[in-house]
Amino acid sequence: MWSGKWHFCFVQAHLFHDSLKRRHRMEKKLKKKVSRRDFLKVTGAAGAAITLEQFLKAPYVRAAGKPPILIGNIEPLSGPYADSGRDEFQGAKLANDEYNRKGGVLGREIKMISEDAPSNPGIGVQKAKKLVERDKVDFLSGTLTSSVTIAISDYAWNQKVLFMAFGSHSDDTTMEKSHRTTFRTTIQNWALSTACATWIAKNWNVRKVYHITADYTWGHTGRNSMNRIIVKKFGGVELGNDFTPLGTTDFSAQLLKARGLKPDCLIVNCYGGDQVNCVKQFKEFGLDKEMKLAGPLSGTPMMKGIGTAAAGAWGMSWHGTIDTPGSKKLYAALMKAFQTYSEWRPSYRHYLGYITHTQLFEAIKRAGTTDMIPVIKALEGHKFDGLKWNPNTWRAFDHQNIQDVLVGLAKRDENWKSEDDYFEIPDHLKGEEAFPTYEEWKANGGHELEPYDMLKKA
Amino acid sequence: MFLEGACSFDKEGRSLFPWRFVMHVNLTFSVIVTQLVNGFALGMLFTLMAVGLTIILGLMRVINFTHGILYTLGAYTVITLQKFLGFWPMLAIAPACVGLLGIAIEASMIRPIYKRDPLHTLLLTFGVALVLEDVIRLIWGDVPYPMTSPQILSGVVNLGVAYFSKYRIFVIVFTSVLLFGVWYFLERSQLGKTILAGTFDREMVVTLGIKIDLLFTLVFGIGAGLAAIAGVLASPIRGVFPPMGTDIIMPSFVVVIIGGMGSFWGAVIGGLLVGIVKSFTVEIYSPMADVIVFFLLAIVLLIRPRGISGIEGLLE
């Protein structure tokens, strides 16, 4: 609250006032004028430099006179989710580069304009506005935090812009808050939890659970989805829940409270830096000897931060060790493009960015245009190879990408060999079994997508 | 907020207000002991921050907003130098480096504007904190760095009734010793006595011929060093990221005000009180955990307007 921009402006104004006084005094001392010749020299040089820069930056696709396809990408590149945001950006960039190398899409170059929106819906919408209204982008993509995604999704619907959401896992994104103009690539909490909770209930016999939940839409739907399986389906009980604000660094009191209630399993509905701290402290207080750990979602970026304290069963979208040919190829491409140091490994966020952009480009190709309605129609119901075991589908009634859901066991013990070993994948659930059916979707507040004629711009 | 929570229901028709937890609070003996110890560990970090703030405030009348960023810099010193030197030397190196930086900030920026309104130094330090945070982002990047506690302190220790984190016990012990050292220095050494005298009556100290400017610089350096040690101690628990200072500066100021501005023991008692109250609020009714500190502040101010042991006449 103390780094707000108004405080900053206040300080700035204060300093500016002083500097004006000082400058006035200085100007009295130095009464030297700039000659016309000097002025021309400087502006000439600057002009030449700018033209040269434009020339050097010339794209490697020389589409004859055709304007590029502009994609506005919004990711949290700072704050607790910065790691994952950067990964999604890189995945999307890999897809762009691949298509540009092949001559672009419909002969047009792909150009991505990137914006940083740390997990704050207000800033997210501000950035989306800038991309749509000033940069005039054709499509919006990206975002990670569900609250930001939903805010941008609403904005995109109002502006009638197609928004390809990579990484929001909240159920609301394709249920209560779904829009005709939004597609969501990643797996919703419902499906992640179905896979994870079913696995822990069957294999670990978990019945009594305690939740630590990030206090925003993603965390809330994560907790509800876990309870749907553990409490309703397996007849378990929720012993308690603590909501923690996004960006919480110390979970000690919550963990001690959980220990006092003796659950079978602690469920961590937190992501990013919050998850890192929570799991580290879980181990720090020795809770790993007293109970199991699970959560709807994790991935390599978090477990790297958690390091030797890695533990728990988690729902996952993709992992580097999936042995299908498509995944192996993507893994190799990512390693080649982005590996900067020896421990670096691709994460499922790369996968999300890559899949979404390639799918969008393929849809544009099938539609033969970048107009929104044909592109949406090309995506809806389309079946494609999602690089996992079974084919993926863009479901028509909620715009969710139906796919295999992975269960990952996090570990870093004596059997740990490589940087990809943070997760062992003991099982995966077929998309049709994990995601809500139309009836379940409807019963849980699924919002029917708007009819096509509402898409025509006024 | 309370009423709204009590009267609203979720989809399954349960009250959003967890009545069952109010009715059967799980306060067993082992829970009470562990939450108490945990509150101590939490409070110790606040105390360490607040002691630095309060001696700077007491002697110099400077509301030092750079304190949070000095804490952050302490943590960043660890992640930068730990690879070469290990964790333990950091407890000395980080406060030395950050202390010197504090001295530089004081001598170059704060000293010229002492004579002005305290609001001016507040604005200046606030600006410096914003600039330094962006400098950190430039050098180390936005991405959080994970940290682990040293091998010898990882794991748990048996408290008799329950297991507790070894590292946090170390934090409590180390901070207690350090605080005792600071207290001993202030109370027993000639220099410390002069500093305390300056806190009570600055004009008199100047009249007696003591160079108060040098004293100010020294005190600012000590405060910065304490903030850096807090940063070092917090890094394995909380991770290291650029805005980490913002998370701790507000509770630290609250501790200073609860304890009473300028008072050493006030800061210690205030810090421990905040930590313990926070810990138990999570146990009893967790949605209140972030607000309770401010309730505590309001209650203390209503009963004792100068805080628990505030000095008369400071910033009044």
Explain what the structure shows:
The complex is a heterodimer of chains A (458) and B (316). With 458 residues, chain A is α/β, with parallel strands linked by helices. Chain A folds into two domains: 69-187 and 323-400, Rossmann fold (3-Layer(aba) Sandwich); 190-316 and 406-434, 3-Layer(aba) Sandwich (Rossmann fold). Chain A is 45% helix and 16% strand. In chain A, strand 9 (292-295), helix 10 and strand 10 (313-316) form a beta-alpha-beta unit. Chain A is globular. The model of chain A is unreliable at 57-61 (pLDDT under 50). Chain B has 316 residues and is mainly alpha-helical. Chain B has a single domain, classed as Orthogonal Bundle (ABC transporter involved in vitamin B12 uptake, BtuC). A two-stranded antiparallel sheet of chain B has the order 1-2. In chain B, a hairpin with a 4-residue loop joins strand 1 and strand 2 (163-165). In chain B, helix 3 (29-60) runs parallel beside helix 7 (166-188) and helix 11 crosses helix 12. Chain B is globular. The two termini of chain B are 34 Å apart. The chains are: A alpha/beta (458), B mainly alpha (316). At the A-B interface, helix 1, helix 3, strand 7, helix 8 and helix 9 of A face helix 3, helix 6, strand 2, helix 11 and helix 12 of B.
Spell out the blueprint of helices and strands.
The complex is a heterodimer of chains A (458) and B (316).
Chain A: H1 5-29, H2 36-56, E1 69-75, H3 82-101, E2 110-116, H4 121-134, E3 139-142, H5 146-159, E4 162-165, E5 182-184, H6 189-203, E6 208-214, H7 217-233, E7 237-244, H8 252-261, E8 265-269, H9 272-284, E9 292-295, H10 300-306, E10 313-316, H11 325-338, H12 348-367, H13 372-379, E11 383-384, E12 392-394, E13 401-402, E14 405-410, E15 423-429, H14 431-434, H15 438-443
Helix pairs in contact in A: 3-12, 4-5, 6-7, 9-10, 12-13
Chain B: H1 2-7, H2 19-23, H3 29-60, H4 67-85, H5 90-110, H6 118-140, E1 156-158, E2 163-165, H7 166-188, H8 190-200, H9 202-207, H10 212-238, H11 244-259, H12 264-285, H13 292-303
Antiparallel strand pairs in B: 1-2
Helix pairs in contact in B: 3-7, 3-8, 3-10, 3-11, 3-12, 4-5, 4-6, 4-10, 4-11, 5-10, 7-8, 11-12, 11-13
